[in-house]
Description:
By secondary structure, the chain is of the alpha+beta class. It has 16 helices and 18 strands. It has three domains: 30 residues, no CATH class; 197 residues, CATH 3.90.1700.10; 220 residues, CATH 3.90.1710.10. The C terminus is likely disordered.
Amino acid sequence: MSGIVTAGADLFAQALTDQAVPVTRVDWQPPMPGTADDLIAVAADPLRTDANEKAAAAMLAVQATLVDVAPASEVLGLERGQFLHAGPPIEWERASGPLRGALMGAAALEGLVADPEEAAGLFGAGDLSLEPCHHHGTVGPMAGVVSPSMWMFVLEDQASGRRTYCSLNEGLGKVLRYGAYSPDVLERLRWMSSTLGPLLATAVQRVGPVDVTGILAQMLQMGDEAHNRNRAGTLMLLRDLAPALVETAVESGFDAGFNNREVAQALSFIGGNDHFFLNLAMPACKLALDAARDIPGSTMVVAMARNGTDFGIQVSGTGDEWFTGPAQLADGLFLGDYGPEDANPDIGDSAITETAGIGGFAMATAPAIVRFVGGTVPDALATTRRMHEITLTENSRWAIPVLDFAGTPTGIDVTAVCRTGILPQINTGMAGKQAGVGQVGAGLVTPPAEIFPKALAALAQQSATRLPGTERTVAP
C-alpha cells in the first residue's frame, strides 16, 4: 500500500497511522451551501481559464510610479459640495458613525459649515453629494473621505498611462479617516493642504517618477506587509524625497517659497508617521487590479471595500457591480480602555492591499504585525499559506523570505472561496462607532461569507449565456 489520503476522518487516519500506514491528511470541507450548481456552471465556462490567466497577467504587469501630488479638485474634478468615501455606495441615512464624522469634518474643512455638527443636516437633506472613491479611480483608508481641497498622491502605470489616486496619510489616533473632527484634526488637514501637499509636489517633480511597486518589493523583505505595517516603506520614500525637499528651502529664488522650518516640519511629520506609505501602497494595488477589470469570464476579485456598514466586492467578469453584505467587527487589540462595544464594524478601502496579495495575505513576511493586530507568529505564517488556496497565482516580485522567497498569494478567485469556504484574511484598524471618537484598536477580520456566493451566481448566469442549452434563472 503506497499511502492513503484522508479528509476529515481523523479516527480512521489515526488508526492507519498506528499501523504504520502512510497517511496524508487533507483539510477539506464541502462547498459553501447552495453553490454547487453555480460552481459547476462557472467551471464549464469556456472563457474562464484563459480569462483568469489574462486577468492575473495584466495585474502582475503593472508598474506603479508616483508622478505627482495635487489637489482633488484638480485631478479628480471634485467641486464644492462633492465628497468621496470608502467602500460601496451608501446613503447618509445608513452611514456609520466614523463615516459620518469624517464627512462632517470634511464639510467644515471646505468651509461649508462653521461647526462640523451643522453638516449633518446638509448631508441628510441631500444637499451634499456622496460617491465611492472606487468610482473615481481612487482609494481611501478607513472612512476614506476625500473633499476638493485635499491633496492627492497621483500614481501612474507609465506603460498604459492609467492613473489612480489617494489622499495623504494623517497619522494615527484622532484623525479624520477614523471619524474624528476636532479643531486639531482640521488644523492638521489645513496644514497638509497648504504646506505638505505643495512641498511633496515640488519634490516629486524634481525627483521624477518614484517606483512605488519597487519599494513595495523591498519593504516586504524588511518586515512590512504594507497594510498595517509600513515603517520600512515610509523611510524608503523619505530617503527618495528628502534631498529634493531640502533643496526647496536652500535654493535662492526658487519659486516654491518654502522656508527651513516648513521643510523640517514636513520631514518630521513623514518620518514620525509609520503609516504614511500606506496611502501609496493602496493606489498602487488599485492600479494593478484595475488592469484586470472587465475581462469576460474572469472570476478574479478586483476590489474589496467597506464603508462601515456594508462590505462589498467587485469581480473582473461582472463589471462595476457590487456584491455586498454586512461589514464585520474585527477581532483584535484595543487602545486604552476601549473594548469591542466601542468599535464600529470594519471600514475602509485599504483591503485593496489584500485583494492584490499583500496586507493580511503577506503576514508571514511581517511577524511583528501580530503585536498590533493580535494573533501569533505561527498564525501569521499559516494565514499566508492558507491564502494560496483561494488565489489564482503568486506575485514573484513580492517575495516572502521566510517561505523560501515564494511570492505572495495573489488574485482572489470567487470559485475557490466558494469551493473551500476559506475567506480572505484582512488586518485592519478599528474606528470608534461614535462619530468624533477616532481609532479604538486594530485587529483581524474577514468579509461576510454570503457575498461570494452572490458573485458566483452572477458569474454563473453569465456563463449560461455562453453555454447553449444551459440557460438558467438566478434568484435575486
